[in-house]
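Review form for a predicted model. The reviewer records the input and the model, then writes brief findings.
Reviewer: anonymous (R2)
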Amino acid sequence: MQYYSKFSQMVYAGGPQLVNAMRASHATTLFLPTDEAFQHLPNSVVEKLLASPKDAAKVVQNHMLLNIMLIEECLENVKYRIENMLQEPLEIAANDGTVYVNNAAIEIARSDHMTKNGVIHVIDKVLMPDI
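Model under review:
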């Protein structure tokens, strides 16, 4: 069972340039929505995104930072504003033991997963850009 297949489809739908950029990226943060997160979107929206390389790439880039941000370093009741790859602000906040990026909860048990080119945090909602 794959938990991140929809996001992976978005990456590949974004075209080979996006795939290669993600493979070559260094020191990035990825807020990775689960397949369950995509189920909260209407099927027609997901299909439209997958059919448009430009829109699929925007969705992927909306989930990425060009630096590493570790959730374990977030302070309780402090809000952080940081730009994603689209140069749009994301707000990260820790409240009552839960850390959020915009309105998506970060699954603490699946956060701060270090990879060769950055860190991954699993989230429960898709961060939709303006499309």
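Findings: The chain has five helices and eight strands.
Further findings: The chain has a mean pLDDT of 91.
Recommendation: see findings above.
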